[in-house]
Design brief:
175 residues; globular; seven-stranded mixed β-sheet; disordered N terminus; single chain; alpha+beta
Length: 175
């Protein structure tokens, strides 16, 4: 897995808060770049979120958001479409995909000494593929259904963006 994920190594110089202390702490930090996509669809009259199956290779023990590494040479938008396709099936493509924001290790629970930076996306899929696993957004927001690695925060942000977009775009016509 490490071979397919892009990594950035950087040096970090940290100086003491006092002007008289000139000691510097230099450390190496490995950063992995991923995308996490909140895919919305209406099922049985309720807003639902697409969940991906368990991915033990990435340390995931339960279903969570479609996610994956940004591959070398791949742009973020293409990575988002790829992970949605892997989770929902190749024949299924969202009608709307929008970058949400970046999430860092503090919110994502990085493992193995790596800092995990994820670019969150929100997508709309008017016709939910039958093969995907869907969960009502309300279950995620109220904590009834737990998601790994702070992904509920990403869903919460995506719901806010989705509601805002419905108010000032033609997004509602997708349904």
């Amino acid at each position: 897995m490490a071979g397919e994920m892009p990594f950035i190594e950087r040096s970090r110089d940290t100086t003491s808060e006092t002007a008289h202390d000139t000691a510097k702490d230099t450390a190496r930090e490995t950063v992995s770049l991923t995308v996490d996509v909140v895919v919305f669809s209406i099922r049985d009259g309720e807003l639902n979120v697409l969940l991906a199956e368990s991915d033990r290779e990435r340390g995931r023990s339960s279903a969570g958001l479609p996610s994956g590494p940004i591959r070398p040479g791949e742009d973020m938008d293409a990575a988002a479409l790829r992970v949605v396709g892997e989770a929902a099936g190749a024949a299924s493509e969202p009608t709307h995909v929008e970058q949400l924001r970046a999430y860092d290790a503090a919110r994502r629970g990085a493992a193995h000494g790596q800092r995990a930076l994820s670019i969150g996306y929100v997508a709309v899929q008017p016709e939910a593929p039958a093969g995907g696993t869907w969960a009502p957004a309300t279950e995620i927001l109220d904590g009834t259904r737990e998601l790994p690695h702070g992904e509920a925060d990403i869903v919460r942000d995506a719901v806010e963006r989705f509601r805002a977009d419905l108010g000032h775009t033609a997004l509602s016509t997708a349904f």
